[in-house]
Amino acid sequence: MSLGLYLHRDSPVHAVPAGAKMLGLLLAGTGLLLFSSLPVVSAALGLTLGLYALARLRPREVAPVFRLSAFVLVPLFLVHGLLSGWVPALVVVLRLAVLLLLATLVSLTTRASDMLEALERALRPLARFGVNPTRLGLLLSLTLRFIPLLATWLREIQEAQRVRGLDRDPFAVLLPLLVKTLRTADTLADAIDARCFDPEEPS
Questions:
Q1: Which of 16, 21, 32, 145 is the most exposed place for a label (fewest CB within 10 A)?
Q2: Which range is most confident: 35-49, 111-125, 181-195?
């Protein structure tokens, strides 16, 4: 199987080194947690969409990500709004949307090998505490790669269930998505084992 979701473009976003993108994602997440007012998260969302345009990603290429975001965030907004109020709910949903879109942007504009190398380099100081930077880097890299992949699967499943007249049943979409995710994780584990990926434990 392949997780090659990188989309090559000649853009300023693609030219940014992988390490800088990962650091920017971390800082953005931290900033949104510390300063989670409606004006701040709204501005962050606008800036994020501007980065998508700057990366020259076509609407049809990122549409699955927006569908996945809506599929998850709209129910969350309704539940949170009924329980805590609509303005707090809007802040929470916009913050999650920005983080999801930024993580996807990093995945689509960064080669997997560059991402893994940057993560391993950043995590190397943790080896003295018994953490294996290669394994942890692989885990974090795969986590980012799976976000746009899930969006693609969601679109495919929705289209298949629409043909069957089941697109309005959320369980008819969620259950196949869960099964596909678990099967892919199992296949990925087998592929890693077949390539004898067994990094040495940090000394």
A1: 16
A2: 35-49
| φ, ψ dihedrals at 196, nearest 5° | 55, 40
Cα separations (Å) of 62 from 55, 69, 165? Answer: 11, 11, 25
124-134 average pLDDT score: 72
Report residue 166 as tokens: 């089941």
HSE, side-chain direction, 13 A CA sphere, residue 78: 5
Take residue 101 and report the two structure tokens written for it.
Answer: 């879109």
Range of the domain at 145: 12-194
- Per-chain mean pLDDT for the chain: 78
Helices (H), 36-169: 38-54, 59-84, 86-109, 112-123, 133-163
Would residue 130 count as lying in a domain? yes
| Tally of structural domains, the chain | 1
Average confidence (pLDDT) over 175-203: 63
**DSSP track, 96-113:** HHHHHHHHHHHHHHS-HH
Inside any domain, residue 4: no
pLDDT tens digits, 65-86:
777 778 778 888 888 888 888 9
C-alpha Rg value of the chain to the nearest Å? 18
* The two structure tokens encoding residue 58: 């076509």
